[in-house]
């Protein structure tokens, strides 16, 4: 169980995919389902299409294009939201998410979703999980035109929310994004070691890490923010 000084934490910023939702849906879509659809459309071998897409993902990794469904729809001449709906049954909340969110709310903390996901993807996932009923504010970084990997995003986000970096916790499964938050000055950081339920948990040493939020519930409830 990671140690976090909960009395010092007033605001909790949360990633979505891999942090609150099982990353299996996204991994399966981008690595399996989409390359297969491209192969069917183009007549090229599946492995060629997968390799081409992996190379393209690398080129735009961390940029707004990587997360932008409009970008991929134009590039591939394909309705990406419709393609996602073909496997929407795989969209799932982590088992420990609702207890975690409920404990945060009961303790009086502000809970904000900050996702790089495109608004179209965010709305699809909210439709399936009702995640919005457990969170105070939902923000897609597309609103700002930059991703969580960028310091510009953190400056804009602070201006929008007015949070104090010294009393803010940020939770994400991406170590690169956690490093960006750390650079900005977010004091409390937490990594998710098991974002994809179909993959083994990762050994994370750079940040405090958690595999099950339920191990923290008593600490959250018994240590309300000092404010």
Description:
The protein is an alpha/beta fold. It folds into two domains: 6-22 and 92-222, Rossmann fold; 25-89, no CATH class. 44% of the residues lie in helices and 11% in strands. It has a six-stranded parallel beta sheet with strand order 3-2-1-4-5-6, sandwiched between helices. α1 (24-42) crosses α2 (46-60). The protein is globular, with a radius of gyration of 18 Å. The two termini are 25 Å apart. The model has no long low-confidence stretch (mean pLDDT 95).
CATH architecture of the largest domain: 3-Layer(aba) Sandwich
CATH H-level superfamily of the largest domain: HAD superfamily/HAD-like
Chain-averaged pLDDT? 95
Strand content: 5-15%
Count of individual helical segments: 10
Write the CATH fold name of the largest domain: Rossmann fold
Inertia-based shape: globular
- Main beta sheet, described? 6 strands, parallel
Number of strands: 6
CATH class call of the largest domain: Alpha Beta
Strand arrangement in the largest pleated sheet: 3-2-1-4-5-6
Distance between the termini: 25 Å
Task: List low-confidence stretches.
Answer: none
> Measured on Cα atoms, how large is the radius of gyration?
18 Å
What is the total number of structural domains? 2
Helices and strands: which structural class? Answer: alpha/beta
